[in-house]
Structure to design on (196 residues):
């Protein structure tokens, strides 16, 4: 998830996560200066890397892990590339290679290689790969019984990343929230990080 950090519309990632069948990692920034994307990418490579007591073949099986990123082709891919190159402008730590769709100029996939270890991951745009436009469509299409939650995206700014207090007004939630769903959210002690 991103928020606008200036009046020119510059976006900065404040939350992200990755998961596989064995592990899930969630990253939510405490302040807007944290590089949430780089923390997330670093954690994937930590997961892949051989642990003490492991056989090198286990690292080899984890290496080359493929992850699907929703909207990689348009917005999220740009944020991932920007986040990595902003901190590491000389590309000392990571090598990034993209595959682009010619007719729409959108990103199909990214291969990110950790230069020192030569471990790599592949990120694939879920919209191009599966053809679903929204996360909810993906869940429904694969008959996954998880409902995408409601979150007041419009309300978020850099000063609210650690907010705990009265729940945000319904006007800040997406159009999919019903009045009953909104009324079921506790009024007090609404916690930004727990709801993100």
């Amino acid at each position: 998830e991103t928020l606008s950090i200036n009046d020119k519309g510059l976006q900065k990632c404040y939350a992200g996560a990755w998961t596989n069948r064995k592990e899930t990692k969630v990253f939510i920034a405490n302040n807007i200066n944290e590089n949430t994307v780089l923390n997330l990418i670093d954690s994937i490579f930590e997961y892949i890397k051989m642990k003490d007591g492991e056989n090198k073949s286990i690292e080899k099986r984890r290496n080359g892990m493929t992850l699907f990123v929703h909207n990689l082709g348009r917005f999220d891919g740009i944020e991932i590339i920007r986040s990595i190159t902003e901190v590491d402008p000389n590309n000392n730590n990571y090598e990034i290679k993209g595959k682009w769709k010619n007719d729409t100029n959108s990103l199909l996939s990214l291969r990110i290689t950790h230069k020192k270890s030569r471990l790599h991951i592949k990120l694939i745009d879920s919209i191009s790969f599966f053809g679903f436009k929204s996360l909810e469509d993906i869940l429904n299409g694969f008959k996954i019984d998880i409902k995408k939650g409601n979150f007041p995206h419009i309300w978020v700014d850099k000063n609210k990343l650690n907010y705990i207090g009265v729940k945000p007004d319904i006007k800040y939630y997406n159009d999919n929230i019903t009045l009953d769903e909104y009324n079921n959210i506790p009024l007090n002690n609404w916690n930004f990080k727990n709801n993100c």
User: Anything to note?
Assistant: The first strand starts at residue 2 and ends at 4.
